[in-house]
Amino acid sequence: MDIEIVAEGLSFPEGPVAMADGSVIVVEIRSGKLTRCWNGKTEVIAVIGGGPNGAAIGPDGAMYICNNGGFKYLVRNGMVIPAGIAADYSGGRIERVDLATGKVERMYDRVGEHLLRGPNDLVFDKAGGFWFTDYGKEMPRVRDKSGIYYALPDGSKVIEVEFGSSGYNGIGLSPDEKTVYAAETSTGRLWAFDVTGPGQIARERGRFAGRIVATMPGQPAIRYFDSLAVTAAGNVCVATLLEGGVTTITPDGAYDLTPMPDPYTTNICFGGVDMRDAWVTLSGTGRLGRCRWREPGLRLNFNA
Known about the structure:
Blueprint: E1 4-7, E2 13-18, E3 24-28, E4 33-38, E5 41-47, E6 52-57, E7 63-67, E8 71-76, E9 79-85, E10 93-97, E11 104-108, E12 110-111, E13 114-115, E14 119-124, E15 130-134, E16 146-151, E17 158-165, E18 168-173, E19 179-184, E20 189-197, E21 200-201, E22 211-215, E23 223-230, E24 236-242, E25 245-249, E26 255-259, E27 265-271, E28 277-282, E29 287-292
Antiparallel strand pairs: 1-29, 2-3, 3-4, 4-5, 6-7, 7-10, 8-9, 10-11, 12-13, 14-15, 15-16, 16-17, 18-19, 19-20, 20-21, 20-22, 23-24, 24-25, 25-26, 27-28, 28-29
């Protein structure tokens, strides 16, 4: 697939959001920034700090951010690689950014008595609330368990929906919003949960409420899952690490990989008049790419 590089020199970009004016807003995790990319240039909207990770437009037109609190990084052969928790880790949180002023507000940093550790990705439903994942943090000999959460954008409510994964990363909703999908990184699995209401999932399946839609093979190449986007037809496009590409998974579990020119391909979003323009974050090399996708992406709630 032909891919056009539309921005370079970004500091581990993620969380792309295609805007109505043709620009794409990304987070720069390593430098803690929210940045607009357009017309061959970049401009900083806000300096957030920590590790801004996932991003989505809310019902008030503001940008909501999953902030993982910060990674440390290695640089190998010009490739930037996340390598655990930052020495100046500042705590996980959900933040709101006013796109007109750049003002940053902290909305949530805990759920009940439990601190958020590494919020990663989020998606808004039609009701105006948002689902988000907390990937947790990895230390040299232990790692946090991971969960799925649901919150309201006014700061009034956040609940734990599911907990206990080895690392939920990307999250997305099916077109009818009856299913919430979550990508699990190190297992290369895509999970699906039946939605029964805002922030509610069916639990008849026992300890693990969800079902596995697909699991990636471990050989000949390792495929770790990162963030995701859903198409208008309901297929799930998951950014795939190490082998480097985007894995498209149908609801019945069939899948194929579209290669990308970066082993740290971390996210994809859709936009354009026909929703077939796909923007892909090539994080290891600090680039944002654009290509024409084979099917239209799903238009996100509140993103005109």
